[in-house]
Amino acid sequence: MPPKTKKLKTTPLSLDDMPCEILERIVSFLDPPSVFSMVTSSEALLRPYGSWLLKACMRRRLDDVFAAITADRHEGPSKCFRRPFTVQDIFPDEERNLDFDASGRPQVILSGSAVVQCVLDKTWDNSDLDIFCTWEAAPMIRRRLFDRCGLICSGVDNDYMQQGRDLVGDLEGIARSVIHHVESYSSQPTRDEEYPSYRDWAVDEQYNRKEFSDEEYVKLTKEWGADTLDKMTLWGGPVGIPGGVLDGDFMYDYNLREVKFVQLIIGTQQVKDARRLRNTFDLEICKCGFNGRGFIIPAPADTFAGRTIITPARHDIMKQFVQSFMRVLNPQLRAPKEDSINLRDILKGMSKKSWKGVGLGPYEDDEDCWGVGEFPRRYIFCQRLFERLKKYRGRGIEIINPPNNALSVAENFPYLEVMR
């Protein structure tokens, strides 16, 4: 009989044993949540390769998100024409050193729903781009938006009546310690039919609809920008602070305001790190960011699973609103007509501490010289909180810590209709 062969002891191959080229190839077919699950399943894989593999996956996905957001044409209540641009246009490799200060602190960060879509491998309609930058970096970032992205400044969003934002209410009032102002940007029209012609109220003659070629239009936007730069206008707030645009002309056209889809959030002079500016978001997941070199992911286990919390100050204001709302509602048998609720009584029942948490003083039910006062401003501030709660739940995000009855209130909110 032939001698018995000795069996060799072998260990099954695992992901830990694979060359990085093979791992990268595998990751190219996976979405970010799957890559996160893969690299966190093994400490031996996580330590040498995890961050690198996850960054490569999300960077590719971010390119896809930009392609969707900056697609040539978006249909909706008003047609929105957009000129495509890329992540590379906002964070050019050749200027990477300008995106960080000498201490390595980021001076510009892309954050908000665009990065959330990247992290979760989602595509949401009507998304905007939120770019946060420090005071010193603003002129440089404007140059990139103008020259590389084909955008034009279309106004300042510093009021309670801004539309479709992921940031809370009156940024200049609520986040005064960190945010100076927010500028909106729109794509440069390339055809006559793209140019808005809906304005029906009196404005300076220079902003009236004109027929012009591309060259004439660019010249006009530079003239309007030079005239408007750093000035207070009828439509609210100075633009171009600080310093206009680096090594170029400031391009401005207020007529494009309704087709804006990029917001430039500029910090105060005291803020030297763009990461601080993200604290104005309602939901923790919206603090996801990209700084040109890498990604910032808060609470990764929850974020990649599509779960998030309401940030503490916003949670408290929503809790106070719900409790006050239920006190107003209960005496009326929980089924009043919407117009039978005195909405002012809701705000009167909210604590000073809750308002202080979002940077506001005690609520006083008065009216200013325009008959507006604090009530509609603060009420719409709360209204926006519940709108965003409802919006992100509709996008499939699980809210871990909603106050009692907050989700019900979000679905049946007693809206205040005002001019927006």
Features of this protein?
420 residues; 3 domains; two-stranded antiparallel sheet; globular; 7-stranded mixed beta sheet; alpha+beta
3D structure, described in words:
With 420 residues, the chain is of the alpha+beta class. It folds into three domains: 18-56; 61-307, no CATH class; 311-411, no CATH class. Helices cover 35% and strands 10% of the residues. The protein contains 14 helices and eleven strands. The protein has helices spanning 20-27, 32-39, 43-69, 87-90, 113-120, 138-147, 171-174, 214-228, 300-304, 312-329, 343-348, 352-357, 374-394, 406-411, and strands at residues 73-74, 80-81, 108-111, 129-133, 151-156, 179-187, 262-267, 289-290, 295-296, 307-308, 398-399. The strands form three sheets. The chain has a seven-stranded mixed beta sheet with strand order 5-6-7-4-3-8-9. Strands 1-2 form a two-stranded antiparallel ribbon. Strands 10-11 form a two-stranded parallel ribbon. Helix 1 crosses helix 3 (43-69), helix 2 runs antiparallel to helix 3 and helix 3 packs across helix 5 (113-120). The radius of gyration is 25 Å and the shape is globular. It starts with 19 loop residues before the first helix and ends in a 9-residue tail after the last helix. The model is unreliable at 159-176 and 198-203 (pLDDT under 50).
